[in-house]
Specification:
The chain has about 475 residues and is of the alpha/beta class. It is about 40% helix and about 20% strand. Helix 16 runs antiparallel to helix 17. The structure holds S-adenosylmethionine (SAM).
């Protein structure tokens, strides 16, 4: 390690910025964010620096730098953009023992500025020692994506309970374990998703139940999206990385499970449309059983848990059993498949509304939909679990007024490497599904918008055109 990372307390201390351009202003802003008293020395200021001076946030001396400007300063930044002036600032700072950073000149600097991820009071600094600033920025982007936006709130929340926890959990190892539970378990998740009141209540409950030795885990109903792991939410990834148990469905893409904690228990409860090897009751029992054992469970469901996923039933069951539940949305198949097929679900000219329906009802006991309403004009209909009844659905829609020429897009295995997009019309849909051997999981998009579908035929034509021309 060539440089020592330190976090300086600058509140109320002097920081000198020499230069009035963009780089100088950026340094002035950072110093201000840390509460420093900032002085800028420059014969002229760019608009953004002038604004800081006008607002009285920085003191400005409209002239060249003098060595005496360093008196009383903790740090100095040189950002004049001129080699000779920058070198003069560095020399004077070295002579007086004031720490100096010359922008883009590590050889003249005592310290380098890290790329910063600010979730105050949690602050991450990334340094390449001034060697490759672009690499530090690239690393920062990754860390930005990893760290929850409300991490700072979590730190403040935890801080506010420090003395209570210290008084209540007196045994040191037990206190450490308790803290680990707070900062990476369901209570942290409540804070990170903006529900601080619920988190506070949960923490008080955990403090009291800890005294009685009992604790119940939380079940997170998490949407795994349509299959492509890139379409997971950040919260889903975070929960997968921390859950003790993962209970997952058939439609959860294999890549998605790569994000799971290596030592987490994995329970497959996949259901086929016609075969349910693990019954819903058994799934409910597994969830309650693990949570009552104090484990945190991710119940991973394809797409969104609350769209044709029986998430509502599972949530009801868990709540009735006294198990805390949190729901994390996912990208539902309709949105993902439409995007993949290039079909806008609504369009100002042809579709003012969109309806998601299931092609089969609860456990095969079909509830007849309102076909007249589904066959409305200027309307897009997305049918989940409909391929098995495609001809019947098309027949009902035409019977209730939709033209047989209405375009339909059929998307099988949307977002997966074996994705297929096939185009049809309502009149030909039944035959197409059989002829093309379309199988589940597949989605039907019915309506004028489906005319835009980038089907296999359209893509092939485009390729031929590109080759020819
Ligand atoms: C039980 S539903 C679950 C829906 C899920 N909760 C969601 O929000 O996407 C299963 C049906 O969703 C559709 N589906 C799910 N994933 C799909 C995918 N990757 N491509 C096409 N259709 C999909 C199919 O119609 C499948 O039969």
């Amino acid at each position: 390690m060539d440089q020592l990372p330190v976090w300086l307390t600058l509140r109320g201390r002097g920081v000198l910025v020499v230069g009035g351009g963009h780089a100088a202003t950026a340094k002035a802003r950072l110093a201000l964010a840390a509460g420093a008293q900032v002085t800028v020395v420059a014969p002229a200021l760019a608009a953004e620096a002038a604004e800081l001076a006008e607002l009285g946030q920085v003191r400005h001396f409209e002239r060249e730098f003098h060595a005496d400007d360093l008196t009383g300063q903790t740090l100095v930044y040189g950002a004049t953009g001129d080699d000779m002036h920058d070198a003069a600032v560095a020399d004077a700072a070295h002579a007086r023992g004031v720490l100096v950073n010359i922008v883009d000149k590590p050889a003249l600097s005592d310290f380098s500025m890290p790329a910063i991820v600010d979730r105050s009071p949690v602050v991450v600094g990334i340094s390449t020692g001034g060697a490759v600033p672009a690499l530090a920025v690239a690393v920062r982007q990754r860390i930005e994506a990893l760290l929850p936006a409300r991490l700072g709130k979590l730190a403040a929340f935890a801080e506010s309970f420090r003395s209570t926890i210290k008084a209540k959990v007196t045994d040191m190892p037990a206190r450490l374990r308790f803290w680990q539970r707070i900062v990476s378990g369901p209570i942290a998740e409540q804070v990170l998703s903006g529900r601080e009141d619920a988190a506070r209540a949960e923490l008080m409950r955990a403090l009291n139940s800890d005294a009685s030795g009992a604790s119940v885990g939380t079940v997170f109903l998490v949407g795994a999206g349509p299959g492509d792991p890139e379409l997971l939410t950040l919260r889903a990834v975070r929960l997968l990385q921390s859950a003790d148990v993962i209970v997952y469905d058939r439609l959860v893409g294999t890549g998605v499970l790569e994000y799971a904690r290596r030592d987490a228990e994995r329970v497959f409860v996949g259901k086929e449309p016609t075969r349910h090897p693990v019954s819903q009751q058994q799934i409910n029992d597994i969830l309650v059983d693990r949570a009552r054992g104090g484990l945190n469970v991710v119940r991973l469901k394809g797409g969104d848990p609350f769209i044709f996923g029986r998430g509502g039933e599972e949530a009801d069951h868990l709540r009735a059993a006294g198990v805390p539940v949190q729901v994390v949305p996912g990208i539902t198949a309709a949105l993902a498949c439409a995007a993949e097929a290039g079909v806008p679900l609504t369009h100002r000219d042809v579709a003012m509304e969109v309806t998601f329906v299931t092609g089969h009802g609860r456990d095969g006991n079909d509830n007849e939909p309102d076909w007249r309403a589904l066959a409305r004009a200027r309307h897009t209909l997305v049918v989940y679990m409909g391929v098995g009844h495609a001809a019947e659905i098309a027949g009902k829609l035409t019977e209730h007024g939709l033209a047989a020429s209405t375009p339909v897009a059929v998307i099988q295995n949307g977002t997966q490497p074996n994705q297929r997009v096939v185009g049809s019309t309502l009149g030909a849909l039944g035959e197409l599904v059989v002829a093309q051997k379309i199988e589940n999981p597949a989605l039907l998009i019915v309506g004028e918008v489906a005319r835009a579908a980038q089907t296999e035929a359209v893509v092939a034509q485009n390729i031929l055109r590109a080759v020819a021309g």
